[in-house]
């Protein structure tokens, strides 16, 4: 896709404080993510996420992230938080992911020792996915703080791709130019500690993505 035809969407994930959500919204991010994965240090309760959602500016999407959560847990989050997108990082199949009446994005862990991914097989496995998020492989899903080999993202996908995994203000520019993604997703790279966002890092990250969008190769 010609990079000149669109701007890169930005999602910041793993919020635990309303003030950080408000600042991210003011900086112009497209989406903020709340994590409900049971083994994440950034996990929040649905009532906490609902309160933080009230700090979001108009036209900013709320994303709910799960990793092998139960059906009732996901339903409770959907009811209380009213996310506009669900993000699944576990072993969930397509039927499970699309069973909540909310569009979903499937995260694909990029293991260094795995065989190359096939775009057709991926889309056949998750036909209901609105997008695919490619993330570094970690025992607890995202938030590893490590990048992966961006050249391993499969070509030929007919759905938007989002790149995650170790993105920060220092490599966001290169990541956008290397992958030409629909969006980028950052968590640990914009923090001072897990769940605590750094305002300067968030600001710099947004500026670097926009710089890449305006770059003429």
TrEMBL record:
Catalytic activity: N-(5-phospho-beta-D-ribosyl)anthranilate = 1-(2-carboxyphenylamino)-1-deoxy-D-ribulose 5-phosphate
Any Pfam family matching the protein: PRAI
Domain N-(5'phosphoribosyl) anthranilate isomerase (PRAI): 11-206
GO BP term, example: L-tryptophan biosynthetic process
Keyword Isomerase: yes
GO MF annotation list: phosphoribosylanthranilate isomerase activity
Enzyme nomenclature, EC number: 5.3.1.24
SUPFAM superfamilies: Ribulose-phoshate binding barrel (SSF51366)
The keyword Isomerase is annotated on this UniProt entry: yes
InterPro entries named in the record: Aldolase_TIM, PRAI_dom, RibuloseP-bd_barrel, TrpF_fam
Keywords noted in UniProt: Amino-acid biosynthesis, Aromatic amino acid biosynthesis, Isomerase, Tryptophan biosynthesis
Matches recorded under CDD domains: PRAI (cd00405)
Pathway assigned in UniProt: Amino-acid biosynthesis; L-tryptophan biosynthesis; L-tryptophan from chorismate: step 3/5
Superkingdom in the source lineage: Bacteria
NCBIfam families tied to this protein: PRK01222.1-2 (NF002296), PRK01222.1-4 (NF002298)
Family: Belongs to the TrpF family.
Annotated protein name in UniProt: N-(5'-phosphoribosyl)anthranilate isomerase
């Amino acid at each position: 896709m010609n990079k000149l035809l669109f701007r890169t969407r930005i999602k910041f994930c793993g919020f635990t404080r309303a003030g950080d959500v408000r600042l991210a919204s003011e900086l112009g991010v497209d989406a903020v993510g709340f994590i409900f994965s049971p083994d994440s240090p950034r996990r929040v309760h649905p009532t906490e996420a609902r309160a933080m959602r009230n700090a979001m500016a108009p036209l900013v999407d709320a994303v709910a992230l799960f990793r092998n959560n139960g059906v009732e847990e996901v339903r409770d989050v959907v009811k209380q938080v009213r996310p506009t997108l669900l993000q699944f990082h576990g072993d969930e199949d397509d039927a499970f992911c699309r069973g909540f009446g909310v569009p979903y994005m499937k995260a694909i862990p990029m293991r260094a020792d795995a065989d190359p991914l096939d775009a057709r097989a991926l889309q056949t496995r998750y036909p209901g996915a609105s997008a695919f998020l490619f993330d570094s492989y970690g025992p607890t899903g995202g938030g590893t703080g490590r990048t992966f080999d961006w050249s391993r993202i499969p070509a030929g996908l007919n759905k938007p791709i989002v790149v995650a995994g170790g993105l920060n203000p220092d490599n966001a520019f290169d990541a956008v130019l290397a992958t030409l993604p629909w969006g980028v997703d950052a968590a640990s790279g914009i923090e001072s500690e897990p769940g605590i966002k750094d305002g300067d890092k968030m600001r710099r990250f947004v500026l670097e993505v926009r710089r890449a969008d305006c770059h003429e190769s």
